[in-house]
Amino acid sequence: MILLDFKMQGCSYIFYMNEIPVFNMSAGHNIKSQLPVSEWVLKGENVFKIKINPLPGHESYEEESPCTVNIVNKDAEEDKILGTAVIPVLTELNNSPIKNDIIYSVKFNFNSSIREHYWGNGLEITNTKEAKLKLIEISNYFIGCFQKNDIKSIIELLKVREQELAYYYNENYLSRIARLTESFQQKMGNGNLKFEPINIENTVMEYYLNNKIVCLKNINYASAIIGYNNDIPITVFYPFYFCLNPSREFVIIK
């Protein structure tokens, strides 16, 4: 398992693994945590990137290294650090506060045996209205299943995703499904939670990894699926990432 072992403070930031946004934080809370990213790591060369924006009042620190990210291979006999990103002080050389995003990139190699990702055999996804409408259709189907409390159909829709994650995190597939079922049951128990159908005008498609992966997003939010709790818009689900399999079917992989 590949983890990001990180300590961040005083800034908003986004982590990317091979172009895929895997974590973001808009507040400047001090955080020390670990994040699994195995599903986006490739055999051979990989690129980890951080986009950082210092927050007011946090442009400099007493510590020499306030923000650090280690890329760790937990499958090695001993935890092996594959790469490290260190952001020493969030000020310009003349000590005036930085106002723009700072981007740090770290390249690392992963040469352990790893099976090919499901999306590795996928087809290139073209930027067409037809493709966008298909992703909207799948997402609206998901919303419909949720509103009907149809967990069985949701699990079937997410089956490939759960199989992939079970493999990369050395988990039991049925155990993952049990946790997922419980999570959906809790969300479905919120009677105030409502959804509106997704339409083509308020969505955009973002492409990754040589157009083998696409994410459907709302123009104003991270996810295309926006819930409303007492008429207040909230993000209930993380955005879906799709690939196009050799049978030309769009499949949710994350």
Main features:
254 residues, alpha+beta, Nuclear Transport Factor 2, Chain: A, four-stranded antiparallel beta sheet, 4 helices
Description:
This protein is an alpha+beta fold. The chain folds into 2 domains: 109 residues, no CATH class; 135 residues, Roll (Nuclear Transport Factor 2, Chain: A), CATH 3.10.450. The chain contains 4 helices and 15 strands. The strands form 4 sheets. It has a 4-stranded antiparallel beta sheet, with no helix packed on it. Strand 10 and strand 11 form a beta hairpin. The longest helix is centred in the middle third of the chain and has 19 residues. It is globular. The chain starts with a strand and ends with a strand.
The number of domains is 2
Overall shape: it is: globular
What is the end-to-end distance?
Answer: 17 Å
Structural class, from helix and strand content?
A: alpha+beta
Count of helical stretches: 4
Q: Using DSSP, what is the number of strands?
A: 15
User: What are the low-pLDDT stretches, counting only 5+ consecutive residues below 50?
Assistant: 91-96
Helix content: 10-25%
SSE succession = EEEEEEEEHHHHEEEEEEE
What's the CATH class of the largest domain, please? Answer: Alpha Beta
Tell me the CATH topology of the largest domain. Nuclear Transport Factor 2, Chain: A
Query: What percent strand?
Result: 35-45%
Quick check: average pLDDT? 84
**Do you know the CATH architecture of the largest domain?**
Roll
The strand line-up of the biggest sheet is 4-1-6-7
Radius of gyration: 20 Å
Characterize the main sheet. 4 strands, antiparallel
